[in-house]
Specification:
This protein is α+β, with helices and mostly antiparallel strands. Among the domains are: about 50-90, no CATH class; about 90-205, Band 7 domain (Tetrahydropterin Synthase, Chain A), CATH 3.30.479. The chain contains ten helices and nine strands. The strands form three sheets. Strands 6, 7, 8 and 9 form a four-stranded antiparallel beta sheet that branches. Helix 4 crosses helix 6. The longest helix has about 140 residues, at about 205-350.
């Protein structure tokens, strides 16, 4: 393509020649300014900062020294040609093993019987933050494709090959899931990854096996249906028996109720007669008892009066007897006292004979005023001659003197 020619004025044609000398002198300064302008434009077009997103961690590598540093959620200085930055996820990541999901797919599994089957596997993983920042240089760019998928295959194939299709499908599904998770967790831990969870979803069975299983399931369903039908019939028969038994019970209960009502009425009448007759008899007995009580009361009163009179007579006789006994006791006590007194006086007189004279004088003092008697030559009582007891007194004195 031919460019059109430019027709410049004469004054402008000779301008480069006049400016040539000045440009040669100012060329270094212009080059420096151009470099600074280019660097400024580069900084504007490509900023020397890296923005770390939420849920990520950025690992910066110094290309000259090889030093590593990490930062999370913020701005990180990144100089072009000096630093290299790689972002790694901090949140849990989900991986779905789609190659193993179909029984006729490229990643189909083999059971213990040699049958092909597919497992719909879903696992959650995350990086091990304890091994940062060294993971940035060790982990491949495609972590799931280059690291997780091979580790999953090496963990799942040996485990599935040890079990039958029935065990994988139903009986030991949980054990298989735990065994795969344990093996895979160890392999990922050695690579700086952490297995969060592993879940086995749909199991894609071989076509022949599924057809046989469907047939077996259909037969089982038919057997269960027949069993349910038989149970239903048995329940219906039992229900009919229960209804008949209930109707019979209702009739029997009604007949028993009617019979019970008649018996209750008869018993009520009989009970009424039983109460009326004893009441009449009790009235007669009450009147008889009242008459007997009146007679008994009169007899008791007569007996009480007689008993009172008898008690009074007996009390009077006992009082008289006690008075006589008291009088006899008094006389006996007086006689005993007199005898004791006379005995004491006899003893006293025997010891003091002159007391007889004094006693006699005391007795005769109010009847005889003067007694003339000769004195006794023996010194005896002056009245012994009058009493005729001279010899006796002399003998008594002689015994006393001895």
């Amino acid at each position: 393509m031919k460019l059109p020619s430019l027709h410049l004025p004469e004054s402008l044609r000779h301008l480069p020649a006049r400016l040539g000398g000045g440009l040669q002198r100012r060329l270094p300064a212009l080059l420096l300014l151009s470099g600074l302008a280019a660097a400024g434009a580069g900084l504007v077009m490509v900023p020397p900062f890296y923005t770390v997103g939420r849920g990520e961690v950025a690992v910066r590598t110094n290309l000259f020294t090889g030093s590593l540093s990490s930062a999370s959620e913020g701005r990180l200085l990144r100089l072009p040609g000096v630093h290299e930055v790689r972002a790694l996820p901090l949140r849990d990541q989900t991986y779905h093993a789609s190659r193993m999901a179909a029984a006729n797919g490229a990643g189909a599994l083999q059971s213990l019987e040699g049958l092909s089957l597919g497992l719909d596997l879903t696992l959650a993983w995350r990086i091990d933050t304890r091994q940062l920042p060294g993971l940035a240089t060790r982990l491949p760019e495609q972590i799931e494709r280059d690291l997780i998928e091979p580790a999953l295959q090496s963990a799942i194939y040996p485990v599935v090959a040890q079990h039958t299709v029935r065990e994988i499908f139903s009986s030991k599904r949980r054990e298989i899931e735990q065994a795969i998770a344990q093996t895979l967790s160890k392999q990922l831990a050695s690579q700086g990854l952490e297995l969060r969870s592993l879940q086995i979803g749909h199991v894609d069975l071989p076509a022949d096996y599924r057809a046989g299983m469907d047939g077996l399931l259909a037969e089982g369903l038919a057997a269960e249906k027949m069993q349910f039908t038989l149970q239903l019939k048995a329940q219906q028969v039992k229900q009919s028996e229960l209804e008949a038994h209930a109707d019979k019970s209702r009739r029997e209960i009604a007949a028993e109720a009617a019979e019970r009502e008649q018996l209750i009425a008869a018993r009520a009448q009989e009970e009424a007669m039983k109460h009326i007759l004893p009441l009449k008899q009790k009235q007669i007995e009450q009147r008889t008892l009242e008459a007997e009580a009146h007679n008994a009361q009169r007899i008791k009163m007569a007996e009480g009066n007689a008993r009172a009179r008898q008690i009074e007579a007996e009390a009077e006789a006992r009082a008289r007897e006690k008075m006589a006994d008291a009088e006899a006791y008094r006389i006996a006590q007086l006689s005993k006292v007199d005898a004791e007194r006379m005995a004491r006086e006899g003893v006293l007189l025997s010891q003091h004979p002159l007391l007889v004279q004094k006693a006699m004088a005391d007795k005769l003092s109010d009847k005889v005023q003067v007694i003339i008697a000769p004195p006794s030559a023996s010194g005896a009582f002056i009245g012994s001659g009058l009493l005729g007891n001279t010899g006796q007194l002399t003998q008594t004195q002689a015994q006393t003197q001895e």
